[in-house]
Amino acid sequence: MAKASDSDSTLDDTSASSNPAEGDAGAEEGVAEAAACGRIEAEERRLQFQLPSVTKPDVYGQCHPLESPELIAGSLVRMEEELKSLPERVRNGWDEACERCPSLVGDDHKLMFLRCQGFHADRAALRLARYWNKRIELFGEERAFLPMTLKGALRDDIDALIFGFVRINSRMVDAHGRRIVFFDPSMLDHEYDRPSMNRATWYVVHAALEDEMTQKRGIVMIIYPQKAKMKQFDTKLLGVDIENIKGCIPVRVGGFHVCHPPLYAHVTIPVIKLIIGPKLSSRFYTHSGKKDKVMKKLEKTFGIPKKSIPRDLGGHLVLDQDQWLGHRRVVGG
Description:
The structure is a single chain. This protein is α/β, with parallel strands linked by helices. The chain has 13 helices and five strands. It has helices spanning 6-15, 20-48, 69-85, 92-100, 107-116, 121-143, 158-163, 194-208, 212-217, 235-247, 265-281, 291-302, 321-331, and strands at residues 166-167, 179-183, 219-223, 253-259, 284-287. Strands 1-2-3-4-5 form a five-stranded mixed sheet. The longest helix has 29 residues, at 20-48. The protein is globular, with a radius of gyration of 26 Å. The chain starts with 5 loop residues before the first helix and ends with a helix.
């Protein structure tokens, strides 16, 4: 049966009654019914995709969604709809990733972005699109669609990882389940390629995100510049790293801790705050004084125990970058 056009439908409605008043009444009734149906559908969507219950605010003022299978399934559906509604120029990278590396962009990948954005599907979709655009820009067409592993996307960046500018350890976790990411500018003690170092940071943060609790709770960044010379404090490098973590990589940031800042910090810290913006600046902390004093404050106020802090900072943990990289090779990471 042929489908009537909009104009045909209008003519049929008009001829259905010889009384104009009856026709107007019928039209008004139809409009009212359609409006009612629209409200019902909108309410059904709201109930289906309503934001989840959350925990009480923690020390950084962040709340964390209480996940359920229903929440995850519904949010993934809505996120897919949001992705399709993005302008083509915005989702170019995402579309290319779906075509060239479909095994890397499944529901588990999307779920990281939903967790990062508190299950706001529209925000998660936009962040995912930005992520793939930036990943292609940073890694290039040849490596962007490879797995984020030492033998994959990072195969040409091992030297940058060996520096140990950014480090993690499975034991570096705070009381709230956040992974601690440790930045030490003093490790930048000889010439390096800045984009390669940025890719190394991507790898380290992605390694942290292999842990589900890190996906849910996020990270805390500890910057330890005490031994670094001012020329080693590369604000361009740190700025790109922070921008990527803040706006692209699917990870929540609880807070920034600068421990034992040197004398030149009065120059560099305002630059960092400018980069991270006012929202994250409200969770930016500097800690000076004796190491024991700083350790007590980190543990008592922020739930970062001494066992989770590197020995250089006064904690118990020995960070061995070569050993960590060796383990990552063994497990295929």
